[in-house]
Write a structure and sequence with these properties.
Elements: H1 2-8, H2 15-34, H3 40-47, H4 51-67, H5 69-79, H6 81-99, H7 105-133, H8 139-167, H9 170-189, H10 220-224, H11 227-243, H12 245-256, H13 261-289, H14 291-310, H15 315-344, H16 349-378, H17 382-401
Helix pairs in contact: 2-7, 2-8, 2-9, 4-7, 4-16, 5-6, 5-7, 5-16, 6-7, 6-9, 7-16, 8-9, 8-13, 8-15, 11-16, 11-17, 12-13, 12-16, 13-14, 13-15, 14-15, 14-17
């Protein structure tokens, strides 16, 4: 009882500590993953590899960290998110460390692909799912703040990685990133808690009698067999074929057009700035305008931004593309988990989010590596960019056709 009384006297609602922990986990996890673009040139040179084969490293990791949510999500609902997130951060750190010692590209596939892929997969959905239960009125804002760690990580980590590669080498850069994940990611993961009721609170810090969110909602089976989930799944699947192409190929594209390495790497940081702004601004805006409409706007916005990429060859136009794309990408990542909570309730929210993210996994596996192989064949990114534009337009149309009324609990 004494412990609980101390908890209740915290001057700040504990849900914000959960948000801070999720921010830190996504910062070091996705920041390290999205820094991969800074390593492409070094890996190509050291292992005499094509751009497509090197890009496949990121695609494998992306496939794993999005597909693993279908396992880590239900486990987090059952066992609690904290344990899964700690394991995930340790795996990510181990993968980065092992990648620093790789003797060939196949070992990079195993170390980075499995280590980072499994690690982020274990931690992302449980961390984001935990945040959803702590908020109701400001869920979109809180979710956006939590996953803005991805945006800030995209801003900071590629630049840090590039600097470490320049000053030391790519192996030392991976080793240092692994240490950062172990210290920051694991340390902050201890703040994650699954349920505000464990502290005698409801969502938003209201009295516990006001909300019983965790008991309400769909079973995982009921959610994934609903028409609404299927439509959302298809939209995310189609969109995801191009979703991460800029994260892998924007830097090589800029280098191909004569932009210096130091400036090219900063373009990833510009995506991070836009992404952070999108998560803060559009996450809160979605709370007022409706999250389904917000997701539709995110798809349309990403399509519009990619049109700018088609027309861009200079630093400033590419920076404009990177910022605008980042805004809508960040908004999409922020709003999607909250939309799942709106549709299917909190009882199995991590499991349902994990099932939905398998759609992104398949697109991530194919999209960035396919763009690399298309470039190897044609010496151009035009076809992958145009395909990404079309995918986002189709996804927006699917979301626009979805019903907006309530769905009964399953």
């Amino acid at each position: 009882m004494a412990g609980r009384s101390i908890v209740l006297k915290l001057p700040l609602f504990y849900g914000w500590f959960v948000v801070a922990a999720a921010f830190a986990v996504t910062f070091v996890g996705f920041g390290s993953a999205y820094a991969f673009s800074a390593f492409i040139g070094s890996l190509q040179t050291d292992f005499a590899a094509s751009r497509g084969s090197v890009s496949l490293v990121f695609s494998l990791a992306g496939f794993l960290y999005f597909s693993l949510g279908i396992v880590s999500g239900p486990l987090a609902d059952r066992w609690g998110s904290r344990k899964l997130v700690i394991v995930g951060m340790l795996l990510t750190a181990a993968g980065l460390t092992a990648a620093s010692m790789a003797r060939n590209l196949a070992e990079v596939y195993v170390a980075y692909g499995l280590g980072v892929g499994l690690g982020v997969g274990c931690s992302y959905v449980p961390a984001v799912g935990a945040v959803q239960r702590w908020f109701l009125k400001r869920r979109g804002f809180a979710s956006g703040l939590a996953v803005s760690g991805i945006g800030v990580g995209t801003l900071v980590m590629p630049y840090v990685a590039s600097l470490l590669i320049e000053v030391l080498n790519w192996r030392s850069a991976y080793l240092i990133l692994g240490g950062l994940v172990a210290v920051v990611g694991v340390g902050m993961a201890f703040l994650i808690e699954n349920d505000p009721r464990d502290r005698g609170l409801g969502p938003d810090g209201d009295p516990i009698q006001c909300h019983l969110v965790r008991q309400e909602g769909f079973s995982v089976k009921g959610a994934i067999t609903s028409r609404r989930f299927i439509a959302l799944y298809i939209a995310c699947l189609i969109c995801s074929f191009g979703l991460f192409v800029p994260f892998v190929h924007l830097v090589p594209y800029a280098l191909d057009h004569g932009i210096p390495q130091s400036s090219a790497v900063l373009l990833l940081g510009v995506i991070g700035v836009g992404s952070t702004a999108g998560r803060f601004l559009l996450g809160g805006l979605a709370d007022r305008m409706g999250r389904q409409l917000a997701v539709l706007i995110m798809f349309a916005g990403m399509a519009g931004a990619l049109v700018i990429w088609v027309l861009s060859t200079g630093l400033w136009t590419l920076a404009a593309f990177a910022f605008i794309y980042g805004v809508f990408y960040g908004g999409f990542v922020a709003v999607l988990p909250a939309l799942v909570m709106d549709y299917f309730g909190g009882r199995n929210v991590s499991g349902v989010i994990g099932a939905l993210y398998t759609s992104v996994a398949f697109g991530t596996l194919i999209g960035p590596s396919a763009a690399g192989f298309v470039f190897d064949l044609s010496n151009s990114y035009m076809l992958p960019i145009l395909a990404s534009i079309g995918a986002n337009v189709v996804a927006a149309c699917i979301v626009g056709s979805m019903s907006k009324g309530p769905v009964s609990t399953g």
